[in-house]
TrEMBL record:
Gene Ontology biological process: diaminopimelate biosynthetic process
Free-text remark on how the cofactor is bound: The Mn(2+) ion enhances activity.
Cofactor(s) essential for the protein: Mn(2+)
Protein name, UniProt field: Putative hydrolase YxeP
Length: 384
């Protein structure tokens, strides 16, 4: 079965929803107007329940099928990014310094399209639980919704999500079992010495040599501590110190990010960074205050659910890749997959500017594929 006919007929309507959301981007947990727009449409479709104010501005809608059956969660994120748009589109952002540069407007429109279809047809048993989530780009709205108990409250048994993919051809679904996206951690440290006149270094404790040594040594975590066949990124992205040519600074600040795919590698990287910092501090006679922050865990697909999702995707599109190499970006859908089995898939929208680029724009031609996938997933899961 290709794209569902009634969803194909809905393409212009979904594009209208998406472009409205694109014009009015909101950040982090402050997605109140977006959520209000979503809730108004859901009420018009005739969903059975709407629960608002979850994770501040998130909402959950429930659509009941014909009799008892499985309970499946479908998630879309709603937040935008603090960027200035450069698409030149007629529907470009009207809010300075904000834009939908990651396709969350498209994710929301696709799930709305599926909601309308499922409400009209009800050709399934059990319940479809639609999760509209804020703050994917920032503090992890997915984590907050899980902590607020949505899995237990709505009886969700399995959970699925799509993400638009500007590196895939239009309508191509890509996924894999196991890790599909990385865990992300951040580190920040302040190397403290004793400042003074640069002409008299012997009267100072210069923090700069230690900071440079730490920066060099951090690269050995990947090159000498991690399995070469594994996946790990340690990137030092900020070094700030000093104010003048003739002043040895009192301190130097360093910061960066760590990406990993498995808990074991994640633990190793955190441990080795702490050991390197402590060792270099002792070697150079300075002190270093290290703040290592664990953020999103790795997004790990469950094998059975990934196979099921790929089979559903194949009903919608002939282009389905089930052995996608993992990517080192991060996703807070990972928290939902820690709580319930499920799968995360990429949906190709045609080759174009990358997400998080000021020229990125969701391709509305991809929406019927995504809405059909969500709908067919609900309709077929009860027969497994």
């Amino acid at each position: 079965m290709p794209i569902i006919n009634s969803i194909a007929d809905m393409a212009d309507e979904m594009a209208g929803w998406r472009r409205h959301l694109h014009r009015h981007p909101e950040l982090s947990l402050d997605c109140h107007e977006t959520a209000r727009f979503v809730a108004e449409r859901l009420r018009g479709f005739g969903v059975d329940e709407i629960h608002e104010g979850i994770a501040t501005s998130g909402l959950v809608a429930v659509i009941a099928g014909q009799g008892p059956g499985p309970v499946t969660g479908l998630r879309a994120d709603m937040d935008a990014l603090p960027m200035t748009e450069e698409t030149g589109a007629p529907w470009a952002s009207t809010v300075p310094g904000r834009m939908h540069a990651c396709g969350h407007d498209g994710h929301t429109a696709m799930l709305l399209g599926a909601a309308k279809y499922l409400c009209e047809t009800r050709r399934f048993t059990g319940r479809a639980v639609l999760i509209f989530q804020p703050a994917e780009e920032t503090i992890g709205g997915g984590r907050i919704m899980v902590e607020e108990g949505i899995m237990e409250r709505f009886g969700i048994e399995e959970v699925y999500a799509l993400h638009t993919d500007p590196f895939g051809t239009l309508g191509e679904f890509r996924t894999c079992p196991g890790p599909i996206m990385a865990a992300v951690d951040d580190f920040e440290m302040v190397v403290k010495g004793k400042g003074g006149h640069a002409a008299y270094p012997h009267a100072c404790v210069d923090p700069m040599p230690c900071a440079l040594a730490i920066g060099q040594a951090l690269q050995t975590v990947v090159s000498r501590n991690a399995d070469p066949l594994g996946s790990l990124v340690v990137s030092l992205t900020m070094i700030h110190g000093g104010t003048a040519f003739n002043i040895i600074p009192e301190s130097v600040r360093l910061a960066g990010t760590v990406r990993s795919l498995t808990p074991e590698v994640r633990d190793m990287a955190e441990r080795r960074i702490a050991e390197i910092v402590a060792g270099q501090a002792a070697s150079y006679g300075v002190t270093v205050d290290l703040d290592y922050r664990r953020n999103y865990p790795s997004t790990i697909n469950h094998a059975a659910q990934t196979g099921f999702a790929a089979a559903v995707a194949r009903e919608v599109s002939p282009d389905v890749i089930e052995d996608l190499p993992p990517e080192m970006g991060a996703e807070d859908f990972s928290y939902m997959l820690e709580k319930r089995p499920g799968a995360f898939l990429f949906l190709g929208q045609g080759i174009g500017p990358s997400v998080h680029h000021p020229a990125f724009d969701f391709n509305d031609a991809a929406a019927p594929y995504g809405a059909s996938f969500f709908s067919r997933l609900i309709e077929t899961r009860h027969a497994r």
